[in-house]
Design brief:
73% of the residues lie in helices and 0% in strands. The protein has helices at 3-16, 29-40, 45-48, 50-57, 60-86, 93-100, 103-140, 146-166, 168-195, 219-226, 228-233, 239-242, 250-278, 283-288, 292-300, 303-336, 344-347, 358-381, 389-417, 435-452, 459-483, 495-506. This is Amino acid transporter.
C-alpha cells in the first residue's frame, strides 16, 4: 500500500473513533519506536540512579535487579501494546480507560498519568542537569551547587520547549538520531571499559553478587528499594501510543514501538550496566561518592577520555528529555480536546504554522520546573533532609505512571469478564490466548512496585502523591462534575466526512 493510501486509511480509522486528523501524521515505525526508546533512555535512568541502586542493592542489583524488573515490564508493555492496537488515539491510557470503563475512570487515569508525566520530565531533565552542571563548572570555573543545577535544569527545559514548538518533523528526526546515538554511546562505554580500564575488571560473577548493601537497611529490603533504578528507567514507553495519531499505520507500528523499546532497552542496558559494574574498583567508595557513575568512569578511564564519555552520556539525557516533552504534550493535548482540564481550549490549540500543540508544550515546561522548584524550596527551608531531589522526582513518576498503566489493563480484564470487550475488538497486534494471564501478572507487579517505591527513604514521594490525589478529589467536585463530559461528547467528525474518505479510498 502506498503512503498516501495508508494515510487515508489511518485518517478513516481515527475518524471512526470520532476525532479529526489535526496533528501531522508523518512518523514511521522506527520514529515511533525511537521516541519510546529515547524516553526509556538507559543512559538516563540506569546512569543517573546508578548510585541509588549500588548503595542499596550492591553490585547484585545491576545483574539480578535489572533483569527482574525488565521481565515484568515486558509483560506490562505487551499488555499496553495490545490496547494501543485496539484503540489507536493520542489519548492512549486516558481514552482506553474511558472506552473500557467510563468517563470517570478516564478522567482519573488522565490526571494520574499527568502527575507521573510531570515527574518523568522533571526527573529526566534534572538528571541531565546533575551531569551537565559539574562538567560545565569544571570548564568555566564556578562551583556546582543545588542552585546552579536548578538554573541549568531550567535552561534544558527551555531548549526542549523551543525544539518541540518548532515541529514534529525536527523532533522525529532527532528521536531517530537519538536511538542510534544511545546504541553508539553504549557501544563506546562497553568497548572502552572492557579494553581500556586503568585497572583490571572484576570477575563476571561480581555482577550477580548479593548480600552487600551500603545502607542501614536489611539487605532484602534494601534490594527492593534499589529497584527504583531499573523501574524508573523502564518508564515512558507509552510515548509510542501518545504519538499514535502522528504515526503511519499506527495499529501495527505503535504497538511494536511500545514493546520493542522495552526489549532493546533491556538488552543494551544490561550490557552497559555489566561493564560499568565490573569496572568498579571500590564499591563502597563509589556508593559514597556524590555521583557514583561519574566516580566509576573517572577512576576507570580518567582524564580527557573519561570527561568526553560523560559528556556523551549527558547529551543522551538531553535527547531523552526532548522526547519526554513530546509525549507529555500530546497526552495533554488529547485530554484537553475533550475538555478534561481547566482552560482546555488553550492546551488543545494547534499552532497553524508548526502543527504542534504549542501551548500544551509550554505548560509541560512550566509544570515540570515547578515540581523541582517546590522541592528546592523545601530543601532550602529544611537543609538536613536525607532524600535526594532525583529520588523524589523519580519515585513520583514511577508510581504515577505505573498506576495509570495499570488502570486500563484492569478495565480490559473487567470488560472481558462482562462480555463487553470481545476478541473482535482487538487490533492486529494482540496476545491471543496469553492476553489474560499476562494482564493479570502485569497488575500484580504494578501493585507491588508502587508500594516499594514509596517506602522510606522515599516517603516524601508518598506525601506528594497523596497531596496530588487530594487535589484531584477537590477538582472532581470543582471541575469534573460541571465541565467534563468524556471523550464521546466532543466527537468532531461527521458521517459526511467519513463517506468522503470512503469514496477516496474506493477511487
Amino acid at each position: 500500500m502506498d503512503k498516501q493510501r495508508q494515510l487515508l486509511e489511518d485518517k478513516k480509522l481515527l475518524h471512526q473513533f470520532g476525532y479529526a486528523q489535526e496533528l501531522l501524521r508523518d512518523m514511521g515505525g522506527f520514529s515511533n519506536f525511537a521516541i519510546s526508546f529515547s524516553i526509556i533512555s538507559i543512559l538516563t535512568g540506569a546512569v543517573s540512579l546508578y548510585g541509588h541502586g549500588l548503595t542499596y542493592g550492591g553490585p547484585g542489583i545491576m545483574g539480578w535487579g535489572w533483569t527482574l524488573v525488565a521481565l515484568f515490564v515486558l509483560l506490562i508493555a505487551a499488555s499496553m501494546a495490545e490496547l494501543a492496537s485496539a484503540i489507536p488515539t493520542a489519548g492512549a491510557l486516558y481514552h482506553w480507560a474511558s472506552v473500557l470503563g467510563n468517563k470517570r475512570w478516564g478522567w482519573y487515569t488522565a490526571w494520574i498519568n499527568l502527575i507521573g508525566q510531570i515527574g518523568i520530565v522533571a526527573g529526566i531533565d534534572y538528571s541531565c542537569a546533575l551531569f551537565a552542571d559539574p562538567l560545565l563548572a569544571a570548564t568555566f570555573g564556578y562551583k556546582s551547587t543545588e542552585t546552579t543545577v536548578l538554573i541549568v535544569f531550567g535552561i534544558i527545559l527551555l531548549l526542549h520547549g523551543i525544539f518541540n514548538h518548532i515541529g514534529i518533523r525536527m523532533v522525529a528526526r532527532l528521536n531517530d538520531f537519538s536511538a542510534w546515538y544511545h546504541i553508539g554511546v553504549v557501544a563506546i562505554l562497553v568497548v572502552s571499559l572492557a579494553f581500556f580500564t586503568k585497572h583490571s575488571l572484576q570477575p563476571v560473577d561480581y555482577l550477580f553478587q548479593v548480600g552487600q548493601t551500603f545502607s542501614d537497611k536489611p539487605y532484602a529490603l534494601a534490594f527492593l528499594i534499589g529497584l527504583l533504578q531499573a523501574q524508573w528507567t523502564f518508564t515512558g514507553y507509552d510515548a509510542s501510543a501518545h504519538t499514535i495519531e502522528e504515526t503511519v499505520n499506527p495499529r501495527v507500528r505503535a504497538p511494536w514501538g511500545i514493546f520493542t523499546s522495552v526489549a532493546f532497552s533491556f538488552v543494551f542496558g544490561f550490557m552497559m550496566l555489566a561493564v560499568v559494574t565490573l569496572a568498579i574498583k571500590d564499591a563502597e567508595g563509589a556508593a559514597g561518592a556524590s555521583n557514583a557513575f561519574i566516580h566509576v568512569i573517572s577512576e576507570a578511564l580518567g582524564g580527557t577520555f573519561g570527561t568526553t564519555v560523560l559528556w556523551l552520556v549527558t547529551l543522551a539525557m538531553w535527547f531523552c528529555g526532548l522526547s519526554s516533552v513530546t509525549s507529555f504534550s500530546r497526552m495533554m493535548y488529547a485530554f484537553s480536546r475533550d475538555k478534561g482540564m481547566p482552560w482546555s481550549r488553550h492546551w488543545a490549540e494547534i499552532s497553524h504554522k508548526y502543527r504542534t500543540p504549542a501551548k500544551a508544550i509550554w505548560l509541560v515546561i512550566v509544570l515540570s520546573f515547578a515540581l523541582a522548584l517546590v522541592d528546592y524550596i523545601v530543601k532550602s527551608i529544611k537543609p538536613d533532609t536525607s532524600y535526594t531531589t532525583l529520588a523524589f522526582l523519580t519515585a513520583v513518576s514511577v508510581v504515577g505512571l505505573y498506576a495509570a498503566y495499570g488502570i486500563p489493563i484492569y478495565l480490559k480484564l473487567r470488560a472481558e469478564a462482562k462480555g463487553i470487550f470481545l476478541p473482535k475488538h482487538l487490533g492486529p497486534w494482540n496476545l491471543g490466548g496469553w492476553s489474560k494471564p499476562i494482564n493479570r501478572i502485569s497488575l500484580i507487579w504494578i501493585a507491588f512496585i508502587s508500594v516499594v517505591m514509596v517506602i522510606p527513604p522515599n516517603q516524601n514521594a508518598l506525601y506528594a502523591l497523596v497531596g496530588m490525589f487530594v487535589l484531584l478529589l477537590v477538582m472532581d467536585f470543582a471541575y469534573y462534575k460541571n465541565n467534563f463530559e468524556g471523550p464521546e461528547a466532543h466527537l468532531k467528525v461527521s458521517e459526511a466526512e467519513l463517506e468522503r474518505i470512503e469514496k477516496e479510498l474506493e477511487s
